[in-house]
Amino acid sequence: xxxxxxxxxxxxxxxxxxxxxxxxxxxxxxxxxxxxxxxxxxxxxxxxxxxxxxxxxxxxxxxxxxxxxxxxxxxxxxxxxxxxxxxxxxxxxxxxxxxxxxxxxxxxxxxxxxxxxxxxxxxxxxxxxxxxxxxxxxxxxxxxxxxxxxxxxxxxxxxxxxxxxxxxxxxxxxxxxxxxxxxxxxxxxxxxxxxxxxxxxxxxxxxxxxxxxxxxxxxxxxxxxxxxxxxxxxxxxxxxxxxxxxxxxxxxxxxxxxxxxxxxxxxxxxxxxxxxxxxxxxxxxxxxxxxxxxxxxxxxxxxxxxxxxxxxxxxxxxxxxxxxxxxxxxxxxxxxxxxxxxxxxxxxxxxxxxxxxxxxxxxxxxxxxxxxxxxxxxxxxxxxxxxxxxxxxxxxxxxxxxxxxxxxxxxxxxxxxxxxxxxxxxxxxxxxxxxxxxxxxxxxxxxxxxxxxxxx
Length: 456
Hints:
- There is one protein chain.
- The protein has 456 residues and is α/β, with parallel strands linked by helices.
- It has 4 domains: 124 residues, NusB-like (N-utilizing Substance Protein B Homolog, Chain A, Orthogonal Bundle); 35 residues, no CATH class; 60 residues, Sun protein, domain 3 (Alpha-Beta Plaits), CATH 3.30.70; 214 residues, Vaccinia Virus protein VP39 (Rossmann fold), CATH 3.40.50.
- Helix content is 47%, strand content 15%.
- It is built from 20 helices and 13 strands.
- The strands form 2 sheets. Strands 5, 6, 7, 8, 9, 10, 11, 12 and 13 form a 9-stranded mixed beta sheet that branches.
- Helix 14 links the parallel strand 5 and strand 6.
- The relative contact order is 0.08.
């Protein structure tokens, strides 16, 4: 039963919950922001959940800037939870246009409820009234502060995109998506029938712009999936259009044997089954037992569990196993990545990822793509995709595979002409053909996709 709170305690409760959630989100890389918020907010009503989520997301979008703000205005080092609470308050005053007095009062009372030093919190937040924001150190730092991105990100992508294009990308990163996106399971349901049900529940719906059996549900009211017949019958699954496009590029055919590597939680696995109407043999591989359990549930709910074999394994070892080498018509590899294409929905990633993680994941991806290439039959297809935007995890991984494996890149942009070209950076193979989707261009996640054909 959701806990009801009186109107006078509403904002105090939201501030306290937001500070606690913010701290937990930034402490761990193991759980996504959505999981943390579900855990923290499950006992509260819809309005408290909605406002608290907004406080957390808005603060995370400007987290690095707000750290500088707290460093400027705090007279001493604040304990972590106090610091998180002050960041929430600073965001409200400096960037959301709230009057300092009620924010200061609310933050101090929330501090008291959390067992913190409420007098100190009151004093620090009160100082925001005459504070004008962090002083930029140089021209690049001015960009970082204006668009709330880490310096390494600006330094990396300005030469690749140009300043004007980079500004557009960063601006979009700071805007929450205006819609939820679902893929309709066309093996079981008609798209128009699903749209009709959403409209009957008062939602505005439009078809996907790039995958016509995806639908976009305009945000604006609470979405309770369990109340929808189309959800309970397995007719829809949450999936960004860019992610759905990857399986379109794979182009699975009935009767084939297909490996989906790093498959959990199962969006692309069930999509392969959908496009072949279950007449397919899918090996779904992942290292995470927990995520594979979610994949199993998705497959069962959508009616595809009979054609999917689930295996817990490290992709890099499969490439040395004679049971699997050269046995698949098509292989899909969507490896662990920095997820920098998802900053609109996962703003915490912006502050948790840096050059070190890019280098480490790129090295791992190169090992994985070599293993994946060995699983493909001669003449078969390997699709490599990521939901990130760094060339080290995309163009350079694909180029390495072209050098070391018997692969030829096919021109995906001739079929999907809305894709942007891949980035041309040092080390990219002249024979690479690949496509990208960008948040500021396509209004989707940032994605990279390349389609290889295994040489006979």
